[in-house]
Write a structure and sequence with these properties.
Layout lengths: L1 H12 L15 E2 L2 E2 L3 H4 L1 H4 L8 E2 L5 E2 L6 E4 L7 E6 L4 E5 L5 E4 L6 E10 L11 E2 L2 E2 L2 E9 L6 H6 L6 E11 L6 H7 L11 E2 L8 H4 L8 E6 L10 E6 L3 E4 H10 L26 E2 L6 H19 L2
Parallel strand pairs: 3-10, 4-18, 13-16, 13-17
Antiparallel strand pairs: 1-2, 5-8, 6-7, 6-14, 7-9, 8-9, 9-12, 10-11, 12-13, 15-16, 15-18
This protein binds 2-acetamido-2-deoxy-beta-D-glucopyranose (10 copies) and zinc ion.
């Protein structure tokens, strides 16, 4: 009886993840069940040393000339959005991975684009990105999940292989704007949210007016951070080459508000999905790289001093 009651309560309090990726029940922000408990409930990977997300400290970012531009295929195709689903902890758009691929950008080969989903806080008042930059958390973060072509489109196969380059996730920060006319694609996307209020709800009758490119408008995709990390939900597999773009997507605050007012967590259908982000994890010696690195003020002043010294010594010749 007690066991049944505990199981029932656990099911009530802990929305669990989309099937196939995690075997444990987990939650985001409950007192006794939150992202700080993942390292105990799913210790194999969530307690690892290369976890995501991370705080990117821009003065510690190292330059890497190999981080060239990407080739995106099918990102301009308006027939690639297959369905939009309430996964119980996020909103997931399944993509046609036969039409959409990513390569270049120093990725080790071709990746098939499987889905994107989002992380958010609570409307435009409370931020909910997963990665942070110099401690700044953005309103939302979009993750495009890609799996190496050698796994034939199977994320589960990539995770089973324990391959640190099995997945390539592209992360985009989202900021608010008042210019509604610029974010038509986001208006269309978020207009489907009221149709998928509850976990498991899904609609396939979607979106031939939008493309991935439309949602990413305004982002220069040649400027990004790169590091080696993990899934940000249990089981937190350390299988992800992370790309976090520097430019932000600007989305109308009204559309951002739709996320935290339309969909409900799994197992607690009375609680709106809010704050579905994991807190930042320690780098543990990992290095974040980027195309170019702005010299820190310390470096700049050192160079200035050396220049002055050199110039002064020239004067003595
Ligand atoms: C997590 O890892 C740390 C250090 O590697 C270890 O001390 C701790 O016991 C681990 N915790 C769990 C729950 O496995
Ligand atoms: C760039 O790529 C070359 C060839 O793969 C490799 O030898 C080199 O270490 C890479 N540089 C960096 C900074 O990763
Ligand atoms: C990207 O596409 C261009 C033009 O189609 C091609 O020349 C280049 O080799 C491609 N790069 C990669 C890494 O696939
Ligand atoms: C989110 O914001 C709304 C309105 O500001 C508030 O009523 C609600 O309690 C907030 N939810 C959380 C989880 O903070
Ligand atoms: C992917 O498909 C190819 C050819 O269809 C097959 O040889 C290979 O074993 C498959 N790999 C996986 C991981 O399923
Ligand atoms: C996964 O790979 C890592 C290093 O690449 C290794 O330390 C770990 O033991 C592997 N885990 C399993 C379950 O094979
Ligand atoms: C969008 O609307 C704003 C005012 O809300 C206006 O200033 C701006 O020029 C418009 N942009 C375009 C591209 O129409
Ligand atoms: C959405 O999910 C709820 C709860 O599982 C279910 O009762 C409802 O029928 C679903 N709605 C649709 C349109 O599938
Ligand atoms: C989708 O793209 C096709 C081909 O570019 C175009 O003919 C069609 O009008 C587009 N559909 C919508 C609804 O924009
Ligand atoms: C993107 O950024 C690069 C590097 O700063 C720049 O050379 C390029 O012109 C930019 N592209 C666009 C479309 O703004
Ligand atoms: Zn994510």
């Amino acid at each position: 009886m007690t066991v049944l009651l505990v199981t029932f309560l656990a099911a009530l309090l802990c929305p669990s993840v989309h099937s196939g990726v995690s075997s444990v029940d987990w939650c985001y922000h409950k007192p006794a069940c939150n992202f700080n408990t993942w390292s105990q409930i799913a210790p194999q990977f969530c307690n690892g040393s290369s976890q995501s997300p991370v705080n990117i400290v821009t003065t510690n970012v190292q330059g890497n000339p190999n981080l060239t531009s990407f080739n995106f295929t099918g990102f301009d195709d308006n027939s690639t959005f297959l369905s939009i689903t309430n996964s119980g902890d996020s909103v997931v758009v399944n993509l046609d991975d036969e039409k959409m691929t990513v390569q270049g950008g120093d990725l080790p080969g071709l990746y098939n684009t499987k889905q994107f989903h989002l992380h958010w806080g609570n409307g435009s008042s409370s931020p909910g990105s997963e990665h942070t930059v110099d401690g700044k958390q953005y309103l939302m973060e979009l993750h495009i999940v890609n799996v190496h072509s050698k796994y034939n489109g199977s994320v589960a196969a990539a995770l089973a292989a324990n391959d640190s380059t099995g997945l390539a996730v592209l992360g985009f920060f989202i900021e608010g704007t008042n210019e509604q006319n610029k974010t038509k694609s986001w208006d269309i996307l978020t207009s489907f949210l009221t149709q998928i209020s509850f976990s498991g709800n899904s609609t396939t009758d979607i979106m031939d007016q939008i493309t991935m490119d439309g949602l990413l408008e305004g982002v220069n995709r040649t400027k990004y951070y790169r590091y080696q990390g993990s899934l940000t939900t249990p089981n937190c597999n350390e299988a992800v080459i992370w790309t976090v773009f520097k430019d932000t997507i600007k989305v109308s605050q009204d559309f951002i508000n739709r996320f935290s007012t339309s969909t409900f967590f799994k197992a607690i259908p009375s609680v709106l999905t809010t704050n579905n982000f994991r807190g930042v994890q320690p780098l543990n010696g990992r290095v974040v790289t980027s195309q170019e690195v702005k010299p820190s003020s310390a470096t700049t002043s050192t160079i200035s001093i050396i220049t002055v010294l050199l110039l002064s010594s020239l004067c003595w010749l």
